[in-house]
Every structure is written in structure tokens, then in C-alpha cells.
Inverse folding.
């Protein structure tokens, strides 16, 4: 998967499983419980120079690795990674 420069991908629910390589030269926005889950046999996320990954959610681990074959999982960041704090409210 490739996110070209000047394009945006918005992910807001659950986990995103990546079983291949994702090259990001654009902007990826994660909100709510969204996260990058590097799974399968060789999950790789490349945030390339000029790429922006914005995490504005409540998942405490916005980048996670699968439990099987974790040796081949990579998160490479040559761009910008922003993690914003989000307050959660709960009804009692």
C-alpha cells in the first residue's frame, strides 16, 4: 500500500492489520481506537521523509506488533510522528 504525497488516509475504528508494506509519503490520521498493527509474516510501515503520521486517539499503543513472528515487523520513521493526548469521559 502507498499513501502518495499530498494525499490523506483517515482511520478511526479498531486496529489496522498490515500484512505487507505500507509506504507513507502523505498524511495518515488515526483517531479513536485506531492503531497500526504490524501483523502477519512481514508487516512494515515506512513513514517516509515528508510523510506525517498523526495519532489522536485513546489507544495506549498506536504502533503494535503481532505476537507471531515478530522478527520481521518494522516501523521506520523518516517523517513526522505526532501523538496527541486525548481525554476520555465516562458516564457513571
Amino acid at each position: 500500500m502507498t499513501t502518495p504525497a499530498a494525499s490523506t488516509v483517515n482511520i478511526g475504528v479498531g486496529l489496522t492489520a498490515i500484512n505487507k508494506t505500507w509506504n507513507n509519503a502523505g498524511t495518515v490520521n488515526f483517531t479513536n481506537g485506531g492503531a497500526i498493527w504490524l501483523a502477519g509474516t512481514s508487516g512494515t510501515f515506512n513513514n517516509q521523509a515528508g510523510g506525517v503520521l498523526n495519532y489522536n486517539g485513546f489507544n495506549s499503543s498506536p504502533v503494535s506488533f503481532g505476537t507471531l513472528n515478530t522478527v520481521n515487523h518494522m516501523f521506520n520513521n523518516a517523517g513526522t510522528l505526532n501523538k496527541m493526548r486525548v481525554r476520555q469521559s465516562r458516564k457513571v
Observations:
- The chain is about 0% helix and 50% strand.
